[in-house]
Amino acid sequence: METITLPSGREADIKAISAKEDLILRDQKLLRKGKAIDQVLEACVVCLDGKEEFTSENLLDMSSLDRSVLMLELRKIS
Predict the structure, then answer these.
(1) What band does 52 get if pLDDT is binned at 50, 70 and 90?
(2) Distance, CA of 4 to CA of 62 (rounded, Å)
């Protein structure tokens, strides 16, 4: 698990992408619906700003830049 600082100044603890999440990223149906990245972020972000529970509501509150940086960091540590 790694802690990263997002462009907005928030801190996130993330874990590496597993085979399950990698399959989600390859699912064309989920990609077309725009849900693949959301599901991967929900599975791999362990903690945001010290709060133990990361939910889809937290995900919707994040800026697109923060979400992009999270995906890049997840790919980097995986």
Answers:
(1) confident
(2) 15
Q: Which residues contact 59 (CB under 8 A, 6 or more apart)?
A: 38, 41, 42, 45, 67
| 3-class secondary-structure state, position 17 | coil
pTM (predicted TM-score): 0.85
What DSSP element (H or E) covers 78?
none
| Residue 52 CA: distances (Å) to CA of 42, 47, 49, 56, 64 | 12, 5, 9, 13, 22
List, in sequence order, the alpha helices (H) in 1-78: 19-26, 28-33, 36-44, 56-61, 64-77
DSSP, collapsed to helix, strand or coil, labels residue 47 as: strand
Q: Report the distance separating Cα 60 and Cα 20, nearest Å.
A: 22
* Residue 5: pLDDT band with limits 50, 70, 90: very high
